[in-house]
Write a structure and sequence with these properties.
By secondary structure, the chain is of the alpha+beta class. The chain has one domain. It contains 9 helices and 7 strands. The strands form 2 sheets. The protein has a 5-stranded mixed β-sheet. A two-stranded antiparallel sheet has the order 2-5.
């Protein structure tokens, strides 16, 4: 079938050929979690990304509103023995774009920016949900291999993570 006049072919790039995918492979990232920079204060305070049930049981969030993450389905199932409220939702490496588009823009305001957390393969995964990785409970900072932010926010992200020097060392530009 002939292409109509003036219609250019699609310029599709395979995910595994994108610079971001290559960088994450080099950083030994296995799972990703899209969020935004308002997650940094909680990450520094608790030294982990917490599950919704862990967040709900912590009075710190009463004063410091949760400014990132998915709230609808996760909150709806809290304390109903549903895995989604008991862990942190992630994506497999090859689905990093979905993680960014679906989650890093939730709660995004003028004062914050997109963040893509990259985790090692050692994160304990809930076996009840196979097609969408979900951690068992919160994810300790020891499992964070990389934190990707837009290049113009690198220094701002490192400043926000200044109490945990190891995390400052794994802040990299988001290559999308």
């Amino acid at each position: 079938m002939k292409r109509p006049m003036g219609l250019k072919p699609l310029n599709l790039v395979k995910v595994n050929e994108t610079p971001q995918f290559g960088k994450m492979l080099a950083d030994e990232v296995c799972y990703v979690h899209g969020s935004n920079s308002s997650s940094f204060p909680g990450l520094v305070r608790f030294r982990a990304l917490l599950s919704m049930e862990e967040i709900d049981g912590t009075s710190w969030f009463d004063r410091n509103r949760l400014g990132s993450g998915e709230r609808g389905y996760t909150c709806h199932h809290i304390y109903q023995n549903q895995p989604i409220s008991q862990g942190v939702s992630m994506h497999y490496l090859q689905n990093f774009q979905e993680s960014l588009s679906a989650y890093s823009y939730q709660g995004l305001t003028v004062g914050n920016y997109s963040v893509l957390y990259g985790f090692s393969r050692d994160v304990s995964i809930n076996a009840k949900i196979v097609d969408h990785p979900l951690s068992k409970g919160g994810i300790n900072i020891d499992f964070i291999k990389a934190i990707y932010v837009p290049h113009q926010y690198i220094s701002k992200a490192k400043e926000a993570l200044s109490l945990i020097p190891r995390l400052q060392q794994v802040v990299f530009p988001l290559l999308v």
